[in-house]
């Protein structure tokens, strides 16, 4: 949910202040939609059980 409302926050909560967080920040500054899409993708691509999460 945080990845959609505040994209950098969602990535930060999932991965910390690493590369994905900064990419989400830059994309969100360029436009909200690219930042939100990247954040959702970033959060969902690393599912812990190895299966792709569905929205």
Task: Describe it.
- With 55 residues, this protein is an all-alpha fold.
- Helix content is 71%, strand content 0%.
- It has helices at residues 2-5, 7-15, 19-30, 32-45.
- Helix 2 packs antiparallel against helix 3 (19-30) and helix 3 packs antiparallel against helix 4 (32-45).
- The N and C termini lie close together (11 Å).
- The model has no long low-confidence stretch (mean pLDDT 84).
The share of residues in extended strands comes to under 5%
Overall body shape:
globular
What profile does the largest beta sheet have? none
**Low-confidence segments:** none
Could you report the average pLDDT, rounded to the nearest whole number? Answer: 84
Order of helices and strands: HHHH
What is the rounded distance between the termini? 11 Å
Rg value: 10 Å
**Number of beta strands:** 0
The number of distinct helices, counting runs of at least 4 residues, comes to 4
How helix-rich are the residues, as a percent range? Answer: over 70%
Class computed from helices, strands and strand pairing: mainly alpha
